[in-house]
Design a protein that fits this description.
Elements lengths: L1 E3 L18 E5 L6 H10 L4 E5 L5 H16 L3 E6 L9 H9 L4 E5 L4 H4 L4 H18 L12 E4 H6 L11 H10 L5 E5 L13 H26 L4 H29 L6 H27 L3 H4 L2
Parallel strand pairs: 1-2, 1-4, 2-3, 5-7
Antiparallel strand pairs: 4-6, 5-6
Helix pairs in contact: 5-8, 9-10
Length: 306
């Protein structure tokens, strides 16, 4: 499944899906004559079908439309690449092999090769690392090293289990998909692949994502913790959170309040008062660290219930 937005990106088509049962080319109401070119390609190849959204719904909107078409057509596996030339289609076969070995979702990882990684623009690399870390915490997939990579392969059965209503239609698509896959119990694997960057221009605004992504990821994290540790289950991780979070917050609030009160009267706080705040902060922080360690090592309960 190839998402096309501009004529220049059609070069990706020639290297994509030579052995695929079908190829869906998704276009988001492109303002140029991309749709006409795609229709011409489709007319010459019976394996090619066009998916054209009436309005630009972003990469997520194009992919959700493509997912629906793939499910209707009865395909077993869906491969998604972008039409910007950054994804090496020779890795598709390796992805399919991982699916055959039992994975539900396979994605590329550009961070295995340090030499090739150096080709990635510094700002984009920094953004991928920072946002990638937050996506790990929000999704619960701590084993994923490159969550922002949009080159992936997924079982159609896994797509059917995914709640489309919670998947974003814009640039948050890949992150929201990983978050929702957690609730399907999907097994996710990565394969090393190079970072390919030339002179293409990205529509992704680093500043905008730094403003919009964190609140969404925070909500996803709180939702996952609530469902995982308090609604569907209650375990030692739940106890760590119940004790650690209020204790830590009490220590910070109590210590801050006392520091402010005694600073107003220009006096040093009593040792006992200081130790109450310190002890609460240390114990609370240690409990939260234990909760994080448990969360990282515990098996996905939704996978266990498969």
């Amino acid at each position: 499944m190839l998402q096309i937005t501009e004529n220049a990106q059609l070069k990706e088509f020639n290297s994509f899906g030579g052995e695929a049962s079908a190829r869906w080319l998704c276009t988001n109401n492109s303002p140029d004559n991309t749709l006409q070119i795609l229709n011409k390609i489709a007319s010459a190849n019976d394996k090619v079908s066009i998916v054209s959204n009436a309005k630009n719904e972003g990469v997520g909107g194009a992919m959700l439309t493509g997912f629906s078409k793939a499910m209707e057509s009865g395909f077993d596996v869906i491969v998604k690449i972008d039409g910007d030339g950054q994804m090496d289609c020779s890795f598709i076969e390796k992805m399919i092999d991982k699916i055959a070995d039992g994975a539900d979702f396979v994605k590329g990882n550009r961070f295995f090769d340090r030499e090739l990684l150096s080709q990635m623009p510094f700002i984009r690399r920094l953004w991928n690392i920072g946002v990638g870390f937050m996506v790990k915490i929000a999704s619960g997939y701590y084993n994923i090293s490159d969550p922002a990579n949009g080159f992936f392969c997924i079982k159609t059965d896994t797509v059917r289990k995914t709640n489309f209503n919670n998947i974003a239609k814009r640039f948050f698509f890949e992150s929201s998909l990983l978050i929702e896959l957690y609730y399907t119990g999907a097994s996710i694997k990565e394969i090393p692949m190079p970072a390919i960057y030339a002179d293409e221009k990205s529509n992704l605004s680093v500043f905008k994502t730094l403003v919009t992504f964190p609140p969404k990821l925070l909500r996803a994290f709180i939702r996952r913790i609530a469902l995982r540790y308090f609604i569907y289950d209650f375990n030692i991780g739940s106890l760590y959170i119940l004790f650690g979070l209020p204790t830590f917050l009490f220590g910070v609030a109590f210590g801050g309040t006392k520091w402010y009160q005694y600073s107003l009267i220009n006096q040093t706080a009593p040792t006992g008062t200081i130790m109450i705040a310190v002890l609460a902060i240390v114990l609370g922080f240690q409990s939260l660290l234990a909760a994080a360690q448990y969360d990282m090592s515990a098996k996905n309960m939704f996978e266990a219930n498969e």
